[in-house]
Amino acid sequence: MDPQDIEPPRTKTAAPDTLQRPAPARRRWWTLLAVSAAQLLVVLDGTIVNIALPSAQSGLGMSDANRQWAITAYALAFGGLLLSGGRISGALGHRRAFVIGLVGFAAASALGGAAVDPGMFFGARALQGVFAALLAPAGLSLLTMTFTEPRERGRAFGVFAAVGAAGSALGLVAGGLLTEYASWRWCLYVNVPLALVAVLGTAFVPPDRPVRGGGRLDIAGALLSATGFAAVVYAFNEAEPLGWGAPKVLALLVGGVLLLAAFAAVEVRAPRPLLPMRVLLHRARAGAFLSITLMFVAMFGFYLFMSYYTQTVLGYSPVRAGLTLIINALAALFGSTLVAGRLHGRVAPAALILPGLLAAAAGMFVLTRLTPQSTDILPLHLVPALVLTGLGLGCVMPPTASLVTADMPRTDVGAASAAYNASQQLGAALGTALLNTIAASATASHLASAQDATPTAASVHGYTTALTVGFGILLAAACVAAGCGAPARRQGRGSTSR
């Protein structure tokens, strides 16, 4: 390993470069409020538009072929620019970058809400992704540098993770309510007051120093990471309608992987890399990155199942289907604040991550037992599954978010925060495409092979097949977490990573 990829031990002379001086208690909690509001914006926007999309398509005259760009434009810009956003955040100073991200996101949201044609709408969604790519790593970096005392850090990351864990479910609920009782445009306008609240909160956020020498952007790394990540995410999106064997999908996947491999090769040799390899080449952090990626693969497939199953099989309205997910959001809130938040620093991160993954896997397994003849579905299947997956997600997100940024030099906090957000985005995109494709293939196969198979029975078979794969993914993530337990225990006691 290159000597520059080894993290320096924490010494008295190195301490100023690691974390800033602790802020007064009142300012610390204002920081949490502002960062949580921003996190809600970013996560909410990943799902709220999904519910509003049919109404937006009708209102703006989008074609069926082009409507996917309402989702894809945001995902590509957000995912492709996250690593650059983390570096720019450090160069500007995380608080300044945070405010710029908030103001830009609010302006892009207002533009999207006022869109008069599909092109304007898609452009606004891409702009939202651009500013979210700056906002997300800046917010997590501020949280990391502000909360350094273990007990307060646990509470802060618990609240932050609760917002992230519940945000996707709340987005479906809010999207249904706003679309049904107001207009699809309010699914975008609602971001403006939320962003303003966060901007007001930044007045109390302690200032931080820009990273010394951070203005020299790794251009080659930025281009390779943006194009490689965007190609992979776009391939996942295209796999849903075209299938994984389609030439376009395969070309995008191969091209994206090659670009990301070239990015890794460039970063090893770059004097000021966009993503220093020491961020990834640490056993506990690598385990946290992989665990949260696999968690999001399974959970976004789970949310897709809940949306389709409750509406197409159970006949729920979009609003009722969204409200059902409140159970999941409340369980995630409980798990992240009252379990993970309180135990942070008292137990090893793996002691939270591993049970959380197993709880989510158990919730997924409950739904694999569904049949077309199942009765009392809400109390016997949906509620246990929603509670267990919510608790699992709530227990996994705080320790992984804290672990990937723990004991990092100040110069690397933005890169680590960006990589964490990128892991979630990659997992969400892959999970939606992969499990949806599996469900569709299993449904078609069941209709073709089973005698007297009804469309409902075939759909349930497809859903349970996809959820079985999700169950296996969560078990694999648990194995990863168990394998990374030893380094995590040392970090959990507050020692410096070497």
TrEMBL record:
The chain crosses the membrane at residues 29-53, 68-85, 97-116, 122-144, 156-177, 183-205, 217-237, 249-266, 287-309, 321-340, 347-370, 382-405, 426-447, 467-488. PROSITE patterns: MFS (PS50850). The keyword Ion transport does not apply. One of its GO terms (biological process) is response to antibiotic. Its main location: membrane. It is found in: Cell membrane. InterPro entries: MFS, MFS_dom, MFS_trans_sf. Residues 31-490 form the Major facilitator superfamily (MFS) profile domain. The keyword Cell membrane applies. Gene3D superfamilies: Multidrug resistance protein D (1.20.1720.10). Residues 1-21 are annotated as: Disordered. One of its GO terms (cellular component) is plasma membrane. CDD domains: MFS_MMR_MDR_like. It is a multi-pass membrane protein. Keywords: Antibiotic resistance, Cell membrane, Membrane, Transmembrane, Transmembrane helix, Transport. One of its GO terms (molecular function) is transmembrane transporter activity. This is Drug resistance transporter, EmrB/QacA subfamily. It comes from Streptomyces himastatinicus ATCC 53653.
